[in-house]
Design brief:
Helices cover 40% and strands 22% of the residues. By secondary structure, the chain is of the alpha/beta class. A 6-stranded mixed beta sheet has the order 2-3-1-4-5-6, sandwiched between helices. α4 links the parallel β5 and β6.
C-alpha cells in the first residue's frame, strides 16, 4: 500500500537528514536545503509499505505550494530541532495550518524532536511530550546523525495513517468482514 508522507518544519531542523537516514541509512554532513520526493519501501507490523516522502522545505515555500503539499499528504511529520527554540514554537504554526487546509482534526501526525544527540539542547523532551499530549499526537525523539528512532518515527506515522483510514471506512465495509486486517466483524 502507498503512503504519502510530508516532512515539514522550520529550516535547518534536519528534515532532509531524517529522510536520507531512512532511505539511504546514512548521514550527510554537507547537505543543502532540498525540495524533492523520496521513495522507499519499509515493512511495518509485518506488512510492506511503499512510502513517497515529500521533503517540504520550511519558510522558502510559497504559501500556495505549501498548501498543495498539505492537501497531497496522507500523513505528516512536524520536525523541530532540540537546539532551536523558534523551530519548536513554529510547530504550532505548521500544525494549525495543516488542520485548516485539511479541514479536520483527524490528520495522521507525529511530532518529531530531531537532533537528540546534541549537547546544547534548548527544548527539553518533557516540553515536546507535553505539547504532543496536548495535541493528542505521538511524540518521537530522533537523531538523523546517529539514526536513533528514525525508523520508529516513520513506522509510527504509517500506523497513524492506518488508524485514520480504518476509521474512515464506511460502516458497511467495516462490518462486512472482508478479511483485511482493518475490518471489524461485529
Amino acid at each position: 500500500m502507498l503512503y504519502r508522507l510530508v516532512v515539514m518544519g522550520s529550516c535547518g531542523v534536519g528534515k532532509s537528514a531524517l529522510i536520507v537516514r531512512l532511505v539511504d541509512n546514512c548521514f550527510e554532513t554537507d547537505h543543502y536545503p532540498t525540495k524533492k520526493d523520496f521513495y522507499t519501501e519499509i515493512v511495518v507490523d509485518g506488512e510492506p509499505c511503499q512510502l513517497e516522502i515529500l521533503d517540504a522545505a520550511g519558510n522558502e515555500e510559497t504559501p500556495h505550494r505549501f498548501r498543495d503539499f498539505l492537501l497531497w499528504g496522507d500523513g505528516f511529520f512536524c520536525v523541530y530541532g532540540v537546539d532551536d527554540i523558534k523551530s519548536f514554537v513554529d510547530v504550532n504554526i505548521f500544525r494549525d495550518q495543516l488542520l485548516r487546509v485539511k479541514n479536520t482534526d483527524r490528520v495522521p501526525f507525529v511530532l518529531v524532536a530531531n537532533k537528540a544527540d546534541v549537547d546544547n539542547c534548548l527544548v527539553s523532551p518533557v516540553l515536546g511530550q507535553e505539547t504532543a499530549a496536548s495535541r493528542r499526537v505521538p511524540f518521537v525523539e530522533t537523531s538523523a546523525k546517529t539514526g536513533q528512532n528514525v525508523e520508529h518515527a516513520f513506522h509510527e506515522l504509517v500506523r497513524q495513517i492506518r488508524r485514520v483510514r480504518a476509521e474512515e471506512l464506511p460502516d458497511a465495509e467495516r462490518n462486512r468482514g472482508c478479511g483485511c486486517k482493518y475490518c471489524t466483524i461485529m
